[in-house]
Design brief:
Layout (H helix, E strand, L loop, with lengths): L1 H9 L12 H20 L1 H5 L8 H26 L5 H9 L16 H19 L8 H29 L3 H20 L11 H6 L7 H19 L9 E3 L4 E3 L5 H11 L3 H14 L1 H23 L1
Antiparallel strand pairs: 1-2
Helix pairs in contact: 2-4, 4-7, 6-7, 6-8, 6-10
Bound molecules: benzoyl coenzyme A.
């Protein structure tokens, strides 16, 4: 069975839910897919915060659609995790108990409207860099979910870029607001790719299994290379004085990331960790009646079907 699994992965074919897979492969997928799902769900909060305050009806409806897409991504991903034999309720309970990880980026605040532009451009931009290769992940349900997620993320990234472009070409105050938001989100978005390769305990095995196709540092570099020409079009700057083109490497060199900050955020000490979990817990409690009603409705429907079959 192991040989068959290895051959399937080597031949770039997909592992499907009913196929035999090593226990560690299954566990890695549950870990990554559930963290990814939690990130989408918690990730609705920084932007959801601005739905009522978006500056026009058009901006409100666009933002509402984007946040709704994120809920959808969370749902596909929980479904993909369930194909591995875990229960979505257990995953949700782990998140509510503060035991599950989700992306560090969603523990930062969104004090101005420009932060919504910066999230779209930088956070969704980083998400695309990271997730496009996941469309070729060896596990079928995860790879297929990523195809649709990436299409939607591309749209999100462009709407963020457009918000920043408008602000950067507006009044002096608007341009300043856009620049400050980019300054706030740039470094945390580089941290989204995870620790440096030398400190990434899961990367080597995940790449061997073809879950991950590129290392954390490779994807981070690709993202920096993409941001530099785009920030020029915006008429803004990236907050890194060490950023410079390296003709020998064919890439931009960039400054040192503050990994202490990253580890603090992972430990729960970021600016908004406590607020994000408290908000999620309240939303879950507020939804109790919906879950109860759905169970009652399903039971009624099942009883009716049973009656009809008996008749
Ligand atoms: N934040 O060995 P490593 C979105 C953890 S949402 C927190 O490199 P791996 C969006 C890592 O889990 C999209 N934790 O791990 C939504 C591991 O801990 P455990 C979010 C992080 O898995 C709303 C430890 O550090 N994207 O787009 O090989 C609005 C060692 O790391 C982080 C995904 O979830 C982090 N940044 O690689 C807008 C992508 N980085 O589990 C947008 C899917 C690392 O051993 N995930 N850790 O305790 C992945 O691609 C990979 O899991 C990672 C990490 C590249 C993130």
């Amino acid at each position: 069975m192991q040989a068959r699994f290895d051959a399937t992965v080597a031949a770039e074919q997909r592992i499907e839910p009913r196929d035999w897979m090593p226990e560690a492969y299954r566990k890695t997928l549950v870990r990554q897919i559930s963290q990814h799902a939690h990130s989408e769900i918690i990730g609705m909060q920084p932007e959801g915060n601005w739905i009522t305050r978006a500056p026009s009806l058009k901006r409100k409806s666009i933002l509402m659609a984007k946040v709704q897409d994120e809920a959808g991504h969370g749902l596909y991903l929980y479904s993909a995790a369930e194909t591995l034999g875990v229960d979505r309720q257990d995953l949700t309970e782990q998140l509510l108990a503060g035991k599950a990880k989700y992306s560090s980026i969603f523990n930062y605040p969104t004090p101005t409207w420009a932060d919504i532009g910066a999230i779209g451009w930088l956070v969704d931009g980083a998400a695309i860099c990271n997730q496009v290769p996941l469309c070729r992940a060896s596990y079928g349900p995860y790879a297929r979910a990523m195809v649709r997620v990436c299409k939607e993320e591309s749209f999100h990234q462009r709407q963020g870029f457009e918000i920043l472009y408008e602000l950067a070409h507006g009044t002096e105050a608007q341009k300043k607001m856009a620049q400050e938001a980019v300054d706030r989100w740039y470094w945390p978005s580089l941290m989204m790719f995870g620790p440096p390769d030398a400190d990434s305990p899961n990367s080597a095995q995940s790449m061997q299994w073809k879950i991950k196709r590129f290392s954390n540092d490779e994807l981070r570099q690709r993202f920096v290379d993409m941001c530099v020409p785009q920030v020029e079009v915006l008429g803004l700057t990236l907050p890194d004085p060490e950023l410079s083109w390296n003709p020998d490497r064919g890439h931009y060199d960039f400054g040192e990331i503050d990994w202490t900050e990253f580890h603090q955020v992972l430990k729960g000490n970021g600016p908004c960790n406590a607020q994000r979990i408290a908000h999620r817990r309240k939303a879950h409690q507020d939804g109790d009646w919906v879950r109860e009603a759905a169970v009652a409705h399903a039971a009624k429907k099942a009883a009716r079907t049973k009656q009809a079959v008996a008749a």
